[in-house]
Design a protein that fits this description.
Length: about 120
């Protein structure tokens, strides 16, 4: 069963998206959402084609748009707006944030890259 948030709020700083579910609440950082965008630009067009996102520490969410009854389109301050975060993917990101964030930091370190622009 797909978890659909009962409330979605963007904080005033535009750096945290709050998702309220019936049984839990999550606060997801804009940088985390940006580097795990479901877009082809980030994910590539197949396994092993993912593109490491660097320099996204200061990114903000400047728009949140509902897409039908199945997803959100997030518009980021760096101009990225092509990923559709369906409810299942958003819930997965929320539940696995700690592990995914550590994986991202490890990939940055391995690439000699930075979160800063």
């Amino acid at each position: 069963m797909t978890q659909i948030p009962v409330a979605i709020r963007l904080d005033k700083s535009k750096t945290v998206l709050h998702l309220d579910y019936e049984q839990a609440q999550f606060s997801l950082n804009a940088e985390y959402l940006r580097v795990y965008s479901p877009s082809a630009e980030v994910r590539g067009h197949g396994v092993g084609q993912e593109v490491l996102q660097v320099g996204k520490r200061a990114v903000r969410i400047i728009g949140v748009e509902a897409v039908g009854n199945y997803a959100l389109k997030l518009v980021f301050s760096d101009g990225h707006d092509s990923g559709l975060y369906d409810w299942a993917y958003l819930h997965e990101l929320a539940q696995t944030e700690a592990d995914k964030w550590q994986q991202y930091l490890q990939r940055l370190t391995a690439a000699g890259a930075s979160r800063d622009a």
